[in-house]
Amino acid sequence: MGRHICGRGSLVGNLGQVSQLIVSGITSGCIYSIVAIGFSIIYSSTQVINFAQGEFVMVGAMVVAVMLAKVGLHIAFPIAVLAGCLAGAIVALFVLIPLRKASVVALIIITVGASIMFRGLAQLFWGETAIPVAPFTGVMKDGIVEDRTFRLLGAVVQAQELWVIGVTVLLVLGMHLFFKYTLVGQAMRACSKNPIGAKLVGISVRRTIVLSFVMAAALGAVAGVTVSPVFYAKCNMGTALGLKGFCAAVLGGLGNSGGGVFAGVILGVVESLAGGLLWSDYREAIAFVILLVILFIKPEGLISLRKREV
Amino acid sequence: MQSVSIDTKNDAHGLASTMVCERKVAGAWNLLPFAIFVVVYLMLPRFAQEKQITALIYIGINVLLVVGLNLLMGYTGQVSLGHAAFFGMGAYTSAILTVRPVPQDVIPGMAVGIGVMTGLAALSSLTRASGWRLAAGTVLLFTLSWIVRFVQVPMWAAMPMYAVALGAFGASAKLGWPKCFISGVACAGATWIVHSFLERTLANNGASPWTGMLAGVLLVCVVAYIIGGQVLRLKGHHLAMATLGFGVIVEIVFRQWTAVTGGSSDGIYGIPPILAVDDLPRGLKFIGTSLSVLTGRSLSPQDQYYFLVWAFVLVALVVSINIVRSRVGRAFRAVHGSEIAAESLGVDTERYKVQVFVLSAAMASVAGSLYAHNAGIGYINPSEFSFVVSVELMVMVVVGGMASVWGSLFGAASIQVLKNWILTLEKSEVSLCGLELHGLEPIIFGAVLIVMMIVLPQGLVRGVSDAVVTGWRAIGRVMRKTE
Lengths: 310, 483
Known about the structure:
The structure holds two protein chains of two kinds.
Chain A: H1 13-46, H2 53-67, H3 73-96, H4 104-126, E1 138-141, E2 144-147, E3 149-152, E4 155-158, H5 159-181, H6 183-193, H7 195-200, H8 205-231, H9 237-251, H10 257-277, H11 283-297, H12 306-309
Antiparallel strand pairs in A: 1-2, 3-4
Helix pairs in contact in A: 1-5, 1-6, 1-8, 1-9, 1-10, 2-3, 2-4, 2-8, 2-9, 3-4, 3-8, 5-6, 5-8, 6-8, 9-10, 9-11, 10-11
Chain B: H1 9-20, H2 27-47, H3 50-75, H4 83-98, H5 107-127, H6 132-151, H7 155-172, H8 177-203, H9 209-231, H10 236-256, H11 258-261, H12 263-266, E1 268-269, H13 285-295, H14 301-325, H15 327-337, H16 339-344, H17 349-372, E2 379-380, H18 387-400, H19 405-427, E3 431-432, E4 435-436, H20 440-455, H21 460-482
Antiparallel strand pairs in B: 1-2, 3-4
């Protein structure tokens, strides 16, 4: 992920560096959190790990990057989210057709196939180069939209990073309220608890599954749109984001959205700190090492609410 | 054994299929496919041009990989999305040892790393330690190696030191001291052997390709044993993600450890080819002459490499078919059917899963060495061992058919041909609806994966033959009714 720290002025001492790393860690952690929520939603409705989850983020980011060249953000944003929903519906279709008779291996292969197909399509249509995206609330300077920056404890914070954090908080709250208070949300929770029981009381399980895929995809697309000015939009950005989001989901306990959010932010910060201060060459590997260790020691996740409920 | 009754429907089904499909076919007929294979193998170069020989070499390497992966995925039912890591480790080990003699300053670190891994493998296999005991053992091994390295304890003193310390650890952690004693010796011995081996290759400006291949296989076996022991306890999606994570980590190491692997931009080039026929010892020269009589020309390096690679393929096919038909193979399929049922019949599922994981990793490592020493290329870089390659291998297994050794041959060949075809299509600069057809490969691959899993989850060969059989029966039924 090509984060550009250069050109932000000199960092003030060690504390400045640490807080800078924490800020960028929280930003990427927010994205991991949203991806983790997506994993959890789909996992609880279908017991399928959707390997194409990261590609939803990519679709959102790429569509908004391409659209912004022609139209404003207020049009590009909804279109990007719609494109994400479409991608989610397509994956749902691929999974739904063979769901009842297919083995776990088959479902894994299908979502992996969907993932590489989306990436290939994005590469075919929009090329391999990273596309820079203008920040939401930037100021024009020499014909280029530059982001506003703030100083906080010696760190330089971009306005876009605040946007990312804000949008994440909104989404998390929204999801919580949705699952708790709306009828559809309650139906989805019922499906994840006991599909047969849900069917008996008249909930369409198939519709719930499609809905969960579309919702996960929409979340991913929103994340992609908000984060694209920070990370740039690139056709292969989805794989790493998806995997790290999965790390967060496993850390937080699969199917437990709240834990996933928390774990995502922690993962982002740990990765950023360890990558910045200890092993900069192996920054990308840190999340996976954590994932392996967690899977070896405690596969049910560090923060598992499941047991308390049962 | 058959009289055991199992109440779960699925378990019974899995076991029943395991038992029933073990009907011994008359011995001689088993050899027929091999006879056909050998004849085709020997006669094919006569009718193939250089380009096709190159394609056949790649197909052979892929067949090696896919046969191994099929044992793991098809027969034992364990998904691996990180198989390219073992492929890459084999390739890199033999490339590094032959071309880029390891830099002086990383030798002790490497020796310690491999030594500790060997000690760990010995510890976990002998004592079945896990959890905090295994972690404590690892820490102890690392501490000892660190002390040995920085205090510069000579080898004759280090060996008993390791042995005594580990023995004491074993006694205190209630793992039994003799077993821990042995793993301490293994750790020290491996460190010492690796250290002196690396120093000798450095002095000799590189090892021979065969040494490289052997070293790769040994390294991969140790790594696969350790990783497999932990990873294979997971199931389904967790297993897939864990193997994927392992694959990604290994790829990042290939990219970033520039001192040894050359990084992603340089890679390693100038890897010497294996001239299998020219290098034959004097007594075996007749093989070379008879092969050139068969091909009707003097053997080019490509031809020789073709014969070498497919000889390995033949060995792999014989080995895996024998395994599949043996008691071990039945155990593999029992694990696939239902682990609980298999365990209740006395199958040590964990051991068999690790065994098949190590076996398929070793096969991948051999394939990697063959890939690195390919005549006329002699170049590798990290992107050849990325996640995409793991997915490609999975596609080959799926297309060839899960749990089908001969199907692997077909799967690898068809996907490789498809890949070559896409490449020529991309090179031909045809444009479709104004789009340049670059990077078509992932799209077609993804589509093939999805369609295959939805329409023919049992693979192309078996799927089509099943469809033909059912179609034939349906026609027969209709005919009988009309009569």
